[in-house]
What does this fold into?
Amino acid sequence: MGGDTLLRRITHEIGEVLLGDIPEEAERANVVHFRRLPPSPRSDTTYYNILYTVRVTDVSCPPHRLPSRPAGRPVLLFPLEETIVNDLRIPDLADKVFLVTGASTGIGAAVAKELGRQGAKVAVHYYASEAEARAVVDEIGRVGADAFLVRGNVAECAANTEIVEKTAAHFGRIDGLINNAGGMLGRIPVEESNETHDRAVVDLNSHSVVWMTRAALPWLRKQGGVVINTTSIAARNGGGGGAILYAAAKGFVSTITKGLAKELVGDGIRVNAV
It folds into this structure.
């Protein structure tokens, strides 16, 4: 497969990750590493996993060059299996402050715990699952990290501002926002749905990302923070039966991630979707 074809395929399949993952302030060109996934018997498409964005001191192969970013800085892309990295580091998260929404269970809980293991300070957000959220806070505390419990309904606009303000008041800063809260709220065919259900799904999965990000921007802008939004494979395939509106709401998340990445890059804020 030629380099140009490879780049187009990667940008199409995981463009939301690639777009916001390159810090503009890097003194030297950063590198996006990717790994080819095993072929699927049901598809001819080749998929790739983004692993890290890191600086390298020595590489053994020429890079593929992508078009310049808005600031005029090119992005270099290296296949992982063809790259020799002398010094690979995960960014130092010690004492960085992250707000993770929907952190009481599932993906959010796993992210919050791992941030704690990496030395970050974590605001563990929840709405209904208090016992589970407290268990996450306790586990983060056991590894010596600082965790703060914050409650609020992200499906209500004002609650997002309150969650951010409580987090900032407790820690004094916010370096990263993980917009993870969301859910299907039941499988209901379009014909059987109603306005109340429709609004609930969109407010929880789509509007909350806008409201929470907007509230956090003044804090993220101070030191060049990061926003990571949780999307879904349903955003690409339309979802299963009774989950069409959820799929569309997650499609909104994927799209707004790309837009925010371009809109906020000048403020030193990176925006990704996973």
Remarks:
- The chain has seven helices and ten strands.
- The helical segments are 3-20, 106-117, 130-142, 157-171, 195-223, 234-237, 244-264.
- The domain at 97-273 is CATH 3.40.50.720 (Rossmann fold).
- The longest strand covers residues 48-54.
